[in-house]
Structures are given as C-alpha cells and as structure tokens.
Design goal:
It is found in: Secreted, Extracellular space, Apoplast. The protein is mainly β. It is about 10% helix and about 35% strand. The longest helix is centred in the first third of the chain and has 15 residues. Bound molecules: 2-acetamido-2-deoxy-beta-D-glucopyranose (11 copies) and copper (II) ion.
C-alpha cells in the first residue's frame, strides 16, 4: 500500500477533490483518512488446469490486492497500465457521491487508460460498510483484474455482531484455458455465444478435484472455538454460484456493503457482482466428525436449459490448526444441484436489511416519481455485411441483448463527457420507461419476430431527488435466465421479486417497504421480475447493466443521467483535468 509518486497536478486535484468531498460539515474528529495504493496492471503468467497463459493482473497477483478502508474514507489508487491494451477500473458498490469521474466503466464515465499511461482514481466512500470489490471495466479484463475492498466500521464503532477473530476474503471467479480477450474477439466476429469457463475458482484456484491443482488449492486456517468473517465475492464473468463449507453452517450478516438481519444457512447463493458477508464458527471437536479439514465448495447456479453449463465443483480447504490430523479426503458440503431454482429463490428471499437505530433504512415508500418497467432479453441481430456469423438460433443473425428492446451501443466518446460538455450525437436521452410491446414475457415459445431488437445509445435522464422504481422483467426470448442487474452510483432497495409477468395491479401490494435489502446488484429471477427503488440524489452519469459480461457486451445495458440539484452539495464535482482522452 505504498504512497505513489503522483504528478503535481494530480496531487493538487486530489486535495481539492478530498476537501470538496468532505465538505464544510466534517469536524477534525470525524475527518476521513486518505489511503493510497499503487496498481501496476501487467501481463503475468499463471498456470491453472495444467495450462499456462499470460493474463492481465494487478501487482502480479490473481486475485489482486485487497483495499482496506474505514467507512467514509477516501481511497486514492494510482493505476499504471503496463499491459498492452486499454483498461479501466471500477470500484464496485462504491456510490462515489457527486464523483462519477472516477467510477470507471469505459466509454460511460471515462475514456480508457492506454498502454503505458497512468490514471489516478479518487474513491469516495460514504454509507458503505462491509465488503465491496474492484474490477476492470473494459472488455473482459475483469476475468483476472479484480480484488476485494474491505470497509471497516469507523474508528470507535463496532460491527453489529460479535467481532470475528479474523476476516477472510473468499473471491469466487472463473478460469478459461483459452485467452479471454481472444474469445471476446471471436464472439464479436462470429456473433456466437461465449464459451463456458473451464472451472470456477475460489481465491483464484479451482481446487484439487481438477487436474494439476492439488498444490495450488487455497487454504483457510482456523482455530477451534473461534468465529471468522468470510467476505464472499462473486467476481465470475458468467456464473451465479452456490457456496458452502462442509460441517459448518453459515450466518449471513451483510451483502453489497450493507448489513442484514442475520440468518443461518447451509449454503449461500451469490450472483455475479454481489458480495455476502458470512460468519463461520469453528466448532470445538467439530460438528461433522473429528475431522481437521473440510472442503469449502462453489458450484454454478444456472437455469437456462438452452445453454451449456459446467457442473463441476471448485474447492478450497478449511483447515483446523489445532485439531488432530485426519486421514482421507475432506468432506464435501452438500451443494444444491446446478439448476436448483427453488434453493436459490429460498436463499434470496431471506435477505432483509438489519434496520436498527444504528443501521437504519430509508426506504422510499410514500411516492414514486419515475415508474419504469424494463424487460431483459437475449436477442438476435442481422449479421453484419463483413461478419461470418455462426451458432445464433436464426440463420443470418448474431446474438445480442437488450433492455426494453434497446440493445445498448457503446459510444466512441464517454457519455459523461458528452453530457458535461454538451457534445451532441453521442447519446439520446430517450430510453423508454416501458417495453414497446406487451406480450407474454415468460412464454417459452415466442414468435421469431420478437427475437429481434433495436440498437442505440439511449439513456434515462432523471431529476435530482426523484424517487425511481425500476421493475426488471425477465423474458423467455431465447430462454428464461436469471440476470444480476447492477447499478453504478447507488445502492437500491430490492422491494419485491416474483415469477411470471409483473402485475402492476397486484404485485406492488406484496412489496417489502419495511426492511428490504440494500444492494447494488439484484438477482432478477429466471422467468420472473424484481423491483428496486432508489432516491436519485447522486448527480452524475451511472451505468446500469447485467453483470454477466457477455450480456454487457451484447447490449443489456443503459445509463442513468441524474441531473444536478440546486445547492452546491447536490452538484457533480468539476471535471478533473487528468481524465484520459478518447
Ligand atoms: C509466459 O508464458 C508464455 C507462454 O504462454 C511463454 O512464452 C513465456 O516465456 C512465459 N514467460 C515467463 C516469464 O515465464
Ligand atoms: C469455443 O470452444 C470451441 C470448441 O472447443 C472452439 O472451437 C471455439 O473456438 C471456442 N470459441 C471461442 C469464442 O473461444
Ligand atoms: C467442466 O468441468 C470439467 C471437470 O468436471 C472439466 O474437465 C471441463 O473441462 C470443464 N469445462 C467445460 C467447458 O466443460
Ligand atoms: C473451545 O476450545 C478452546 C481451546 O481449546 C477453549 O478455550 C474453549 O473454551 C472451547 N469452547 C467451548 C465452547 O468448548
Ligand atoms: C471424536 O473422537 C472422540 C475421541 O476419539 C470420539 O469419542 C467421538 O465419538 C468422535 N466424534 C465423532 C462425531 O466422530
Ligand atoms: C452434478 O454433479 C453432482 C456432484 O458432482 C452430481 O451429484 C450430479 O448428478 C451432477 N448433475 C448433473 C446434471 O450432471
Ligand atoms: C467489408 O470489407 C471490405 C474489405 O475489407 C471493405 O472494403 C468494405 O467497406 C466492408 N464493408 C462493410 C459494410 O463494412
Ligand atoms: C440455415 O442455413 C443453412 C445453410 O444455408 C441451411 O442448411 C439450414 O437449413 C438453414 N437453417 C434454417 C433453420 O433455416
Ligand atoms: C404466459 O406463458 C406462460 C408459460 O407458457 C403460461 O404459463 C401463462 O399462462 C401465460 N400467461 C398468459 C397471460 O397467457
Ligand atoms: C424490437 O424491435 C425490433 C426492431 O424494430 C422489432 O422487430 C421487434 O419486434 C421488437 N421486439 C419487441 C419485443 O418489442
Ligand atoms: C484505446 O482507446 C483509445 C481512446 O479511446 C481508442 O482510440 C482506441 O481505439 C482504443 N484501442 C482499442 C484497441 O480499442
Ligand atoms: Cu444477463
């Protein structure tokens, strides 16, 4: 966590940014700390499943380094692009109040950092407390460019649960033997689907149920009688996952940087993009026999029967430091089957905000200013003149994806700059509030004509302070599938979920407006809907997209532009002079 040798203008800008961020209200006693990190992004050789390949990694680590902070801190990260391609980094789940400049998604809030260039991000923490993470937000670089962000309570504040003996990041990911960027190029060229990963990983390792993986398996050492906080992150590109530890139940206490009412489970279901904070009690003598080693395991959760899925199990080892050694292999936990929708639904239904005096909720219940119903679809588009399309379900087409039948087209200049500097022709402020056509969204046999989508860089503009409700509706076009929808710049309350077509007359009556979970990534159920609400009090340009990367590149995205409010503290910070150019 060394202090970076930043250039003078950058330092001045940072100081300005930090002073503005803290505002006049901060007294010296509450003053946030500024933590500095240097990220060197470069190609690093990694061997998994008997295959060696060069991957992009930060500081030679895969997964990358953990950022530690306290609630309300400012973190400054100097990113040095020492690789051979454009990159950007996103701070997933950090609201970045009034500070969209440093949010990260390429061509949304910034132009990419080119090879050989550096860019310094100022990351302003506010209400977040718990586990967040950072990852590349360019092409498919996230596959290996990611790591944890641990946000501790403020000095003098405590966790709303007994202090754990140790805290351990558990990063779930995916490994491809093939070069991920080459795969992206191939899918762009042929319009085909992205090949499934060769293995899921836990802290970068597939575990010893896979070839050439015995030595690298990651280990978590525990002592009897102590309680550990596992900070579970799903960094996977394409998979939601079940996670469990043999012989141990898990008490879930937080998600996406916000506390939950604790509940105890045999397994967790975590969607791509989400985090789950879970307490694990290392029982004396142990509950599951006199073992000293237990498997921690992760397996894909997937429901689209039209897609291939890898049913294999990634493992790590939970090892008791002070228990007698055991002969034989560790026990495997019972994970739900790869398509166990009921298990996933039952898990997600238990997420409720802690909602105490110290950790209150502020659910917008009285009024909604912007009602949006947004269909989520996999589509086809006609094959381009010079493309050789294959694999798509209709001859002469390629795969695409859309929200409200608009397949998002990434612009050549970032949307934030276009908005800030009034550059015309980059985006249109007319993203539809409703699907252009109402049909039976969940009918598994739709007419072929429904499969096609429009294209455009269409964004939704909302007034500062508006209460926004978005009901995400999955469609069965090319297969019902659950989608982890992620919003930048905000956490939102997940007020409702259900199966089938959303019923505007009946379903709002089932909303939880008392203690809904406060998340940044919502699992929209396959063949169902999920409703979120947020107050648009963070001005800026904020990407909203499915967190499955192949859906992101296919266009399952849009952008919220939240206008400035009247007072200075309701307005975006000025454009940093250090922004990379397109
Ligand atoms: C990295 O791997 C490539 C092949 O994948 C190999 O050519 C190269 O020598 C390796 N570099 C190092 C430093 O091991
Ligand atoms: C997917 O896998 C197939 C078979 O292994 C291979 O031929 C193809 O090139 C791969 N596609 C991509 C996009 O990597
Ligand atoms: C799926 O998992 C198995 C291990 O069970 C592995 O051998 C295989 O390569 C994996 N990948 C694919 C694409 O099937
Ligand atoms: C568990 O073991 C530790 C160390 O052996 C001991 O200090 C503690 O009292 C034990 N706890 C229980 C609940 O037995
Ligand atoms: C654990 O070992 C003790 C002592 O060897 C034995 O009495 C006990 O039955 C064992 N417990 C289990 C669950 O196997
Ligand atoms: C998936 O793997 C599990 C455990 O390895 C096995 O019990 C189950 O039958 C497999 N399911 C399918 C559909 O292959
Ligand atoms: C197709 O490729 C040819 C040769 O590269 C090029 O001249 C032509 O403009 C391309 N057409 C389109 C529609 O991109
Ligand atoms: C798609 O095109 C191929 C080759 O032109 C043809 O053989 C095949 O029958 C077509 N499939 C459909 C579903 O039209
Ligand atoms: C929509 O399609 C589903 C699945 O086929 C079916 O169960 C449902 O009855 C249909 N709903 C309506 C309103 O037709
Ligand atoms: C989406 O737009 C395309 C192109 O205009 C159209 O063909 C298709 O029917 C529309 N689909 C839906 C579900 O609105
Ligand atoms: C890298 O980014 C620059 C600036 O936006 C762009 O002009 C260039 O085409 C990008 N390179 C690639 C390979 O995408
Ligand atoms: Cu998706």
């Amino acid at each position: 966590m060394g202090g970076g040798v930043a250039k003078m203008p950058t330092v001045l800008w940072l100081l300005l940014g930090v002073v503005v961020a803290l505002g006049v209200a901060a007294s010296p006693a509450q003053a946030a700390r500024t933590n500095l990190y240097d990220f060197f992004v470069k190609e690093t050789n990694v061997t998994r499943l008997c295959h060696e390949k060069a991957v992009l990694a930060v500081n030679g680590q895969f997964p990358g380094p953990t950022i530690y902070a306290r609630k309300g801190d400012v973190v400054v990260v100097n990113v040095h692009n020492q690789g051979s391609k454009n990159i950007t980094i996103h701070w997933h789940g950090v609201d970045q109040p009034r500070n969209p400049w440093f949010d990260g998604p390429e061509y949304i809030t910034q132009c990419p950092i080119r090879p050989g260039a550096s860019f310094t991000y100022t990351i302003i923490l506010s209400g977040e407390e718990g586990t967040l993470w950072w990852h590349a937000h360019s092409d498919f670089d996230r596959a290996t460019v990611h790591g944890a962000i641990v946000v501790h309570p403020k000095l003098g504040s405590a966790y709303p649960y007994p202090k754990p003996h140790k805290e351990i990041p558990i990063i779930l990911g995916e490994w491809w033997n093939a070069d991920v960027e080459q795969m992206l190029e191939e899918t762009k060229r042929t319009g085909s689907d992205f090949n499934i990963s060769d293995a899921n990983t836990i802290n970068g390792q597939p575990g010893d149920l896979f070839p050439c993986s015995e030595n690298g398996i990651s280990r978590v050492i525990v002592e009897q009688g102590k309680t550990y906080l596992l900070r579970v992150i799903n960094a996977g590109l394409t998979n939601d996952m079940f996670f469990a530890v043999a012989g141990h139940r898990l008490t879930v206490v937080g998600t996406d940087g916000h506390y939950l009412k604790p509940f105890t489970v045999d397994h967790v279901m975590i969607s791509s993009g989400q985090t789950m904070d879970v307490l694990l009690h290392a029982a004396n003598g142990s509950a599951a026999g006199n073992n000293s080693r237990y498997y921690m395991a992760a397996r894909t959760f997937a429901t689209n029967t039209q897609l291939p899925v890898n049913n294999s199990t990634a493992t790590a080892i939970l090892q008791y430091a002070d228990a007698p050694p055991t002969a034989g292999p560790p026990d495997l936990p019972n994970l739900p089957a790869v398509d166990d929708l009921a298990a996933a639904t039952a898990y997600t239904a238990q997420l409720r905000s802690l909602a105490t005096e110290d950790h209150p909720v502020d659910v917008p219940a009285a009024r909604v200013d912007e009602h949006m119903l947004v269909t989520i679809s996999i589509n086809v588009l006609p094959c381009g003149a010079n493309e050789t399309c294959k694999d798509a379900p209709i001859n002469g087409t390629r795969f695409a994806a859309s929200l409200n039948n608009v397949s998002f087209v990434s612009p050549g200049v970032d949307v934030l700059d276009a908005y800030y500097s009034s550059i015309r022709g980059v985006y249109e402020p007319d993203f539809p509030d409703r699907p252009p056509l109402f049909f039976n969204f969940t009918d598994p046999n739709p007419a072929d004509a429904l499969l096609f989508t429009e294209r455009g860089t269409r964004v939704k503009v909302v007034a500062h302070g508006a209460v926004v409700e978005v009901v995400f509706q999955d469609t069965a076009l090319l297969g019902a599938e659950s989608h982890p929808m992620h919003l930048h710049g905000y956490s939102f309350y997940v007020v409702g979920r259900g199966f089938g077509n959303f019923d505007e007359g009946k379903d709002p009556a089932t909303y939880n407006l008392v203690d809904p979970p406060f998340q940044n990534t919502v699992t929209v159920p396959a063949g169902g809907w999920a409703a979120i609400r947020f107050r648009a009090t963070n001005p800026g340009v904020w990407f909203m997209h499915c967190h499955f990367d192949r859906h992101t590149v296919w266009g399952m995205d849009t952008v919220f532009i939240v206008k400035n409010g009247k007072t200075p503290d309701a307005q975006m910070m000025p454009r940093p002079p250090t922004m990379p150019k397109c």
